[in-house]
TrEMBL record:
Protein name stated in the entry: DUF2794 domain-containing protein
Species of provenance: Ruixingdingia sedimenti
Pfam families tied to this protein: DUF2794
Source organism superkingdom: Bacteria
Length: 114
């Protein structure tokens, strides 16, 4: 007699990829648009992988990203699933609320006027 394997329950399924939703992308692209208008940023790339979604920000197209905004759902219950990563890989800010995490980049837009 042949034994049929038991399928995994739907609630424990591992997603094929992690992605930003519309609200998250709106917050990121709003900041990105302001920084492009200020002449600070020039290009971006979006990667949707199994465990992380990454929005990479470039000053010039041919360079390494100057910042990365990451979404890691597995860290939701721990440190927060959103993080801003600097050019050398240092975590600049991590948290549960994306707009609060993005504020670390908004401070770079505010300059003193002479």
């Amino acid at each position: 007699m042949r034994q049929v394997p038991t399928p995994f329950p739907l609630s424990q399924r591992i997603p094929e990829e992690t992605a930003f939703d519309r609200r998250e992308l709106a917050a990121i692209l709003s900041l990105y648009g302001r920084m492009v208008a200020a002449g600070e940023w020039r290009d971006y790339a979006i990667s949707h992988l199994r465990e992380v979604a990454v929005f990479s920000i470039f000053r010039r197209t041919a360079e390494n990203p100057i910042y990365r905004v990451e979404k890691r759902p597995r860290l939701r219950q721990k440190q927060g699933m959103y993080a801003v990563i600097g050019p050398e890989g240092q975590v600049l800010r991590r948290g549960h609320d994306l707009p609060m995490v993005l504020r670390v980049l908004e401070r770079r837009l505010i300059r003193s006027v002479d």
